[in-house]
Structure formats: structure tokens, C-alpha cells
Amino acid sequence: MVVGVLALQGDFEAHSKMLQDLGADVREVRVPADLEGLDGLVMPGGESTTMTLGIKREGLGDPLRDFVRSGKPVLGTCAGMIMLDREHLGVMDTVCRRNAFGRQIRSFEEDLEIPGIDGTVRAVFIRAPWLAEYGDAVEILASVDGHPVAARQDNMLVISFHPEIAGESRVHELFLKNVAAQ
Amino acid sequence: MRDEATFRVKAGLAEMLKGGVIMDVVDAEQAKIAEDSGAVAVMALERVPSDIRRDGGVARMSDPAMIKGIQEAVTIPVMAKARIGHFAEAQVLEALEVDYIDESEVLTPADEANHIDKWGFKVPFVCGATHLGEALRRIGEGAAMIRSKGEAGTGDIVEAVRHLRAIRSEIRRLGTLDDMELATAAKELQSPLDLVRQVAAEQKLPVVLFCAGGIATPADASLVMQLGAEGVFVGSGIFKSEDPATRAAAIVEATTHFRDADRVAKASEGLGSAMQSLESRKLDEQQLLANRGW
Q: Where, by residue number, does D-ribose 5-phosphate bind (chain B) (predicted)?
């Protein structure tokens, strides 16, 4: 089982380490050829503007769309959630509001309940987005202050917070379970 | 329960900047060019280090109006510099809601004995360091990100390399010591023992480490990334070069693909002339910025 982590920029190392600790083989994805043969993909947090430019520079737009449409599990966190929306790669029926909670000074952490995970998850929100719009195919899994911060559509699971920063591995376990079930 | 401004949240933003380039800018127009070139954040300041060096005089925190203009121009994080020990400047920058404060030796120090107590702020701080002890003292004071100092405004990479190598080799050395020796190492490094133990066990700093000071080319960025930097700050290197937008994008590309010499070669082609440079070794002791802070 080989899982890719988009590594143009952002906290890809924290994701890689967490996935490796859970027993997955991890490959960093920087160019289209890196996507070949992957069983799942994580799109990490980072700066969405920078990541958008990087995807364009590397010609990764179509290969990433093809990967998502192939049905293999994809986990998008924070900037990764933004990349999947209608205004970016256009594979998920969502529109994200960037830096929705405000500047860094408004960044926070709190406990969230996520369906499929027992107990609460410590969720770290850093200049985080939320889903401003979403279509019928999108299932909302969790909200903060009435704004969706975790959702699922087909093979895509998106969260606007950072379990990898909190050492919270259960979201990644859920993702790897989906990868193994393929 | 909601907790704001925890250390995890402060250090977490630096995690999001990893593998990226933070660029010095002096106005909204430059900030936009930086963002469009792929910068992960901008550092707002009135004069870039090479101009501070040339002009002399007291270098202070930037005009809040300029910082606000830059905040309005871009969506990437906006950082700004406060003088070493100048907690009132830092309070002003926090009131402006900048995303990171750089307590910087590039500005004229305000306190010759003390750095800012960074634990008291909601905004995270990045601080410079020339070696591991200095880095751990800053983290002990609450810094959530470290950058090597280099020699700002010179375009000469040699000091950045020296500082990065010093930090990395001291980290490796800690990994070879037993518990009793670690206590002695903490004394020698003048650093908190708990941080020394943590670094020895994890073989890395507890916060993100970027490289700053003297980066002027894509190959410079590749060099310091291969030496263990997790991202780069570029000051005078971009907007003092012949073609800033092209050079900025090239340094971003080389930072992402730092191990791929073919990509770094391609990114280095046809960039025009680099910034005017100064050889660090030929500077007088009084002109050195990196030895400010302790």
C-alpha cells in the first residue's frame, strides 16, 4: 500500500511521518510521474495561493483530477481542502472561504466530534478555511460556529484542521482504512 | 473547549510555511509580486537589509500604514520585524494582527541584555540564531520558529552556511551523549535542559528551522535546503536583482525541487544579474548584523 503526499510546500512531512507510523509506505508527490501506482493521496495544509501556483507550474492539475476521479481515497486538509473545491481543481462540489476564522491571531484548537471516530478529536485550526457552499453530494461531518469544517464526497474526505499537528492519528487511520478497502 | 494562541497553534503556522520562500517587501506592489511568484509569506519592512546597511542610522519597526497596505494587498501571511527587546514595537505589531513577528538583529537592538518575553503574546515569533544554544534560548523565551541568521543584506551565503552547519552538527552531537553529559551540554549551550533533552531525542529543533541571510540565487536556496533548512527567507536578493518576479519564481521552484539538480539548473537560467553583493569577511566588525543578539 503506497500513499502519496503532495509535497510542493506545506506540512507534508508531518503527514508523511504520521502515515509511516501507521504502517503505510509514503511517496512525496512533486511531479505528475510521482502519482503513478499510488493507492491513495493526502493533500496537506500549506498556503493555498502558493500550492495553486505550484500545481500549475508542475502541470499537476489534470493528473490530480484524474487521480481523484479514479476513485482512490483522497484526504484534503486545510489548503488541501481548498485545492479540491470548485474554484481550484474543481473535483469536489464545494467552495471554500479562505482564512475564514481570521488572521493567525484567531487560530485556535478545540475538541470536535467526527462520525466514525470514537470520542473527540483535538482539532488545530490555523488560518483555517470553512466550506462556504456545498452541493447535495457533499456530506457534512463536523461544524464549528455553524460553519462546516469536515466533509465527505465519494472518495474525498476533507477537513479544515490539522490532526497531524496535534499528534492525533485517528483521521489518518480512517483514511488508511479506506485505502486498504479499495 | 476552545484554546487560542497555544504554542501548538503558533508553531503550527511555521509548519504550513515549510518548503517555501518568505520574501522581504517594502510596499504593497512588491508584496503582490512576491505572492504571484509563489512566496508562502511576506516580511513587511521599510528598508531591505542591504539598504539598512547602506543608509546606517537607527533601523526601527515599519510604519503601520505600510503594513496595513500590504495586509490588504495579499492573502498569504504577513510578517513584520520588531527590534530585539523592543516589546512595545511587538505590541504594536500584535495590535496590527500581523501573522508572525520577527525579533530581528537586522533592526537596531533596543535592549542590550534581554530579548522579548514571547510567551506573553498571542502572535507567534520567529527569531534568528547562529548556533544551537542561541536557538534554544529563543525557543525557551517562546519563539515558535527559528531562522539561521546569515549575514543579512550581503548576498554572500557563507555565513548562512556556517550557522546552519553549526546548528545541525550540534544537534547531531547531542544525539551521541548520555543523560549526565546532556546536563553538561545544557550548561555549555546555556539552554534549558528539557529542550536539550528533546533535541537529543528527536534529532531536530522543536520548531521549524528556516535559513536567512545572503540567499541570492536558486542554487543558494538548494544548498541551504540540502544542509537541513526547512524553507528560506530571501531579503535583498529578490527586489535588488535585475528581474525580481522571474528570480522570485526561480527561487521558489529551486526550494521545492532542492534535491533535483536538473530542475535547479533550469530555474537558474537567464535570470539577469543578481543583487549587488558584499563579501562578509571584508566587513568591519561594526558592520556585522549576525552578532547582534546572544
A: 24, 153, 214, 235-236
